[in-house]
Amino acid sequence: MNIIDLRSDTVTHPTPEMREAMARAEVGDDVFGDDPTVNRLQELAAQKMGKEAGLLVCSGTMGNLIGVLAHCQRGEEAIMGDKAHTFLFEQGGVSALGGVFPHTIPNQADGTLKFEDIEGAIRGEDVHFPVSRLVILENTHNRCGGVVLTAEYTRQVAALAHKHNLRLHLDGARIFNASAAQGVNVKELSEPADSITFCLSKALCAPVGSVLCGTQDFIYRARRIRKQLGGGMRQAGVLAAAGIIAIEKMSIRLHEDHTRARRLAEGLAGLKGFSLDFGMPPSNIVFVTMDPFVKSTAKEAADILDREGIKVGVVGEHRFRLVTHYWIDDRAVEKTLAAFSGLSRA
Ligand code: TLP
After folding, report:
1. Which of 224, 251, 278 is the endpoint of a domain?
2. Helix or strand holding residue 346 (H, E)
């Protein structure tokens, strides 16, 4: 990748090793369960997450949607943060397609939901109320600045949910980043949840795909829903081959992206007219706000950067999001900082 693309880690291209593995992948019809590479990926994913089974799905959005629909009946309620990806950025799929009612409570700055808010949101036994069925957490938390939830917090939320006969789904799109940031085994973060979706196609560089993991029975239901949504894939082994490398090789280098995100954040914070929205980033996501004296809008600034071959996410009138990943090296970070510093002169 010649362009410095910081808009997201979703922009990552597959590595040369992935492309080779994709070309060589053994395949079969996965709707029949016949694709050996998909089966291998699903087993590997389940084992990493400490779950009985896994299911390859097209995207993180599809994994979360299927997860919610496999837990909830129509008219039931899912409790989630007001900054959750499942609430803000998934096209309202859980209600549009599943008739599931999202009940939002405030996300705290550290990405958590308060225990008392969760407990307060759970409905009692009353004929007027929908049935509360699910709590959703997100780790790392995208819109809270890539912050991480601890294993202990996740366990406590799971215990609270289970006490009230609810389930816990984890949107772990970037769960390997959460694991790298805390230096803990990914399984510790995923195990307390009843189900987890994690993405192969973000910082892990695979071109397509996420894996939904849970019990055998849950994945059996999830597989049926995936088919219903048109997400049953055929010779998906070509994708799974990249996914296996994503898990085995790419998940163990994410601390490098986190170091670069901190360098980027440090540099931006040192520039006149820029301030970090959430302080130093714990993982690979940096949110930064620009004073209008630099450029009147973030969009205008982003257009100038774009002409220099640097793409950044515009997430507000004066706000940017920059995400580091495998294809962003030290030189790219320094070039980006130089370009930001040149903005007030451009
Ligand atoms: N997030 C994307 C955009 O949709 C905002 C990004 O660039 O960060 N959960 C979380 C926490 C996510 O950040 C995302 C993608 C998803 C789920 C959905 O994954 P995909 O894009 O594969 O559907």
Report:
1. 251
2. none
Q: Of 251, 275, 302, at which residue does a domain stop? A: 251
CA distances to 174, 303, 342 from 309, rounded to whole Å, are 26, 10, 14
Whether ligand 1 lies within 6 angstroms of the CB of 132 is answered as no
Amino acid identity at 176: F
Among 9, 64, 169, 202, say which to mutate for ligand 1: greatest number of ligand atoms within 8 Å of CB. 202
Q: What is the pTM of this model?
A: 0.97
Residue keyed to tokens 């599943």: 98
Q: Interior CA angle at 33 toward 32 and 39, to 5°? A: 160
Segment 77-123, tens digit of pLDDT: 999 999 999 999 999 999 999 999 999 999 999 999 999 999 999 99
Is residue 209 domain-shared with residue 295, that is, in the same domain?
no
129 and 30 fall within a common domain: yes
The pair phi, psi for residue 175, each rounded to 5°, is: -65, -30
With respect to residue 238, please indicate whether it lies within any of the assigned structural domains: yes
Contact present, 186 and 251 (Cβ < 8 Å): yes
Domain that holds residue 319: 253-345
